[in-house]
Amino acid sequence: MEEMEEELKCPVCGSFYREPIILPCSHNLCQACARNILVQTPESESPQSRRASGSGVSDYDYLDLDKMSLYSEADSGYGSYGGFASAPTTPCQKSPNGVRVFPPAMPPPPTHLSPALAPVPRNSCITCPQCHRSLILDDRGLRGFPKNRVLEGVIDRYQQSKAAALKCQLCEKAPKEATVMCEQCDVFYCDPCRLRCHPPRGPLAKHRLVPPAQGRVSRRLSPRKVSTCTDHELENHSMYCVQCKMPVCYQCLEEGKHSSHEVKALGAMWKLHKSQLSQALNGLSDRAKEAKEFLVQLRTMVQQIQENSVEFEACLVAQCDALIDALNRRKAQLLARVNKEHEHKLKVVRDQISHCTVKLRQTTGLMEYCLEVIKENDPSGFLQISDALIRRVHLTEDQWGKGTLTPRMTTDFDLSLDNSPLLQSIHQLDFVQVKASSPVPATPILQLEECCTHNNSATLSWKQPPLSTIAADGYILELDDGSGGQFREVYVGKETMCTVDGLHFNSTYNARVKAFNKTGVSPYSKTLVLQTSEAAGAHETKPMKGR
């Protein structure tokens, strides 16, 4: 259950979701956080000038600000970059969990209005902090987004399972353990706070006080709110629109944009999507099981490398000591080579362990979250998020594809000391390989004539050396943050060309690439300097230079 916690936290505030809403991209935000990251767009970018009348795809228009995707021609890898494509005059902020978001561009709503009811300025725009897709709100504002009641239910159960003892909700400093709960006030009290804030006299004398455990159960058994239509707030969801993939009400079918769409019974689609998510989870569960076994294999390899290293060093020392004083100087050099090989093997295996552990933690968290979602008995709420969850499960399963669970390093030290030469040939003493092994691929070469920048995007191209005979399984492209900071991976795949969008304007980036195969990774290529355009309106294409 602990690995599921990241699925339950808002990407903006970093805390558990409070009144979560579902964006059209299927990601979630706290309702208050969604309002905090709203920005206003110029009048020329009004959605009225771009919205096609009668379109049934969405009530929202995606902006040209969506510049965060990384793609390559016929991309077969994956990429991610933590930058944010905003106007040069709009600085970015980072949320507690590392996601870049827009700063608030408008004053907070009056305290007497909830975030959903407070008026939203005209032409307000919101950008998803996870996929960076931007959209302009219509007249309904934040009320046009459906609430994710399934996620709220999962968070409630998770928090209840984590709470060891119920605490008083009115203690100012260190909360004391609650002794009673008022069913009418829906508040947990310790004895001092109950006597001070809830005296047994006057109107409060009729309130029913129960033990905390009983109060928790009554909270859990309280009826959930009925899901209502976002377009017709007085109507409950009763059908499912197959074309729009969302629950709808009867009024939507009679007079709304879904009148000509194919619809099906809500309960039938609920059961169908639950079945599809369960089937997808079965495949992902098998991958997770294989990943756990693979981690055990990798940890065993670490132990074997350690043991083989000790054994190899002892043998080497014994052979060198037998070759009198002339061998001593050479012995130190050979030991250094063995230690270097030892560290290289450990580094490759440990890096793979770390990468696989992170991926397994994310996979397990997604699985636990999906299992909790399946437990929900709210058809419409479930159908609001089921498609996105099914896609995420399939995508995560694909990431555990061929080659992911294969060690990149062997445990054997493929070297042997030949002590047959005479003493006068000691200076020629060197290792010989016991068995042939696949070497790492050669260092890729960045093709400067094909690398260029355009506005705030950069296209990079590379190739293997002409005389290289060692095949590469793929390439890793790395980019710094534009300020001389640490490099980060932005593309991993088999392609030899990649376009990176969403860079900052008028910034200098450094790029480098390396190749890898089952044996290991090649050295980095020469660093390439990228200079982006000064402003969004510039159209010049700048060549690259290496160093």
From TrEMBL:
It comes from the Eukaryota. Keywords: Coiled coil, Cytoplasm, Cytoskeleton, Metal-binding, Repeat, Ubl conjugation pathway, Zinc, Zinc-finger. Residues 163-212, 224-266 form the B box-type domain. SMART domains: BBC, BBOX, FN3, RING. Residues 374-432 form the COS domain. GO terms for molecular function: zinc ion binding. Residues 10-50 form the RING-type domain. GO terms for cellular component: cytoplasm; cytoskeleton. Residues 440-535 form the Fibronectin type-III domain. Residues 288-344 form a coiled coil. The keyword Repeat applies. CDD domains: FN3. The keyword Transferase does not apply. It is found in: Cytoplasm, Cytoskeleton. Transmembrane segments: none annotated. InterPro entries: Bbox_C, COS_domain, E3_ligase_FN3/SPRY, FN3_dom, FN3_sf, Ig-like_fold, Znf-RING_euk, Znf_B-box. E3 ubiquitin-protein ligase which ubiquitinates itself in cooperation with an E2 enzyme UBE2D2/UBC4 and serves as a targeting signal for proteasomal degradation. May play a role in regulation of neuronal functions. May act as a regulator of synaptic vesicle exocytosis by controlling the availability of SNAP25 for the SNARE complex formation. PANTHER family: E3 UBIQUITIN-PROTEIN LIGASE TRIM36-RELATED, E3 UBIQUITIN-PROTEIN LIGASE TRIM9. This is Tripartite motif-containing 9. It comes from Mus spicilegus (Mound-building mouse). The lineage of its organism: Eukaryota, Metazoa, Chordata, Craniata, Vertebrata.
